[in-house]
Amino acid sequence: MAHLLSTSCSIKVSSGCKPYSKPLNQGLGAFPTSFTLRISKSPFRSLVSQGQKPPRNYTVHATTLPISKEAPPQPSSGSHQTSNEPSKPQRVMVIGGDGYCGWATALHLSNKGYEVAIVDSLVRRLFDHQLGIDSLTPISSIHNRLRCWKSLTGKSIELYIGDICDFEFLSETFQSFEPDAVVHFGEQRSAPYSMIDRSRAIFTQKNNVLGTLNVLFAIKEFREQCHLVKLGTMGEYGTPNIDIEEGYITITHNGRTDTLPYPKQASSFYHLSKVHDSNNIAFTCKAWGIRATDLNQGVVYGVRTDETEMHEELCNRFDYDGVFGTALNRFCVQAAVGHPLTVYGKGGQTRGYLDIRDTVQCVELAIANPAQPGEFRVFNQFTEQFSVNELATLITKAGEKLGLNVKTISVPNPRVEAEEHYYNAKHTKLVELGLKPHLLSDSLLDSLLNFSIKYKDRVDTKQIMPSVSWRKIGAKTKTITI
User: pTM score, two decimals?
Assistant: First the structure.
């Protein structure tokens, strides 16, 4: 066990935490003025950063102290209940809860009545510092975010700061929180980042594959009935010239028929790490009886959910750069600042897309309808398909309505991928569970563009063009020039 040093400290809290979009009944004078830290000297991996020696790091477990006057309990969707027992909230651990999808999901689940804990190493914020990039939106520290959420809603979200690749830290976290479900977003999620250089490729594979293996072992050792909800990616499938099924395909070969995992054609070291994850999870479901749902997610767009709209301190990150920015978000920012939309190659690359409000809805549906012991389910998590050219056309038309002169340019494709191809992916299972999609409407595009215009003074135009080449990746650590 790690040697723990318990301490407490007082913190000065800013006086203003007023909701900016929704009036709330609860007053905001209940901000906690202190929190408890548990610090352990467990190892925390550092990324290679321009040849500098990594600083010494610590693992921190921080939990806000309870407020004396809690919000009254309300019926929630996040509860177990039997005829003989009172309602008991499900406990959900959100790994990677400080990130883009994780933060929105953690708030959504907390708001729905689940008891939530965030587990995060905060390494995504380190990536920004290393690469000289930043979110379009200003984002608060994780501690300020959680204090604000507590003050606005009366709901606590526990916080465990540490690296899931450190099994000692993860073991203590599992035994402390005792989750009923684990939502696993805690991976390096960018294909371009994994293709910068050898060190980032290795970091991506080690962080993603070993971290997920640790989660699987933690479930086996400490919470056998825990349901793993893992964020996968549609990129595992590639772009085959046949329909993409949801995880499995039934084939007949030489007169014999079987249902097998759908073939994988990963297109980056990041996507390969996701394929390895899927294989490891499928094996442990078969061998150990773990219950797991793999959400093969398409490209996410948007920034606002009901919960992040409650206060500016809860605002989610919005990436627009060539490393972490997704296509639609990048195009909105480019249109807002008068930069031509950057279409890679021919622009026929077609993918599944979904609003971040549907991401959180899908995760909740997966938790509420868990896999059976030993079952490895795969859901394709997206709501619509678009080519890059179709997205550019939609943004151009929406921009014209706002008086923007939107142009499009074709730039050399930095990736190795088909630029014109067949693409038809099935996505019915989540709809059957009750998903009500937010489709890409004119009003939503208008909202995204206006949001981008609001923060356009924060845009660093040097980060718009792609700077990572799939073919030019090398063994030498790449220095990022600002």
Answer: 0.87
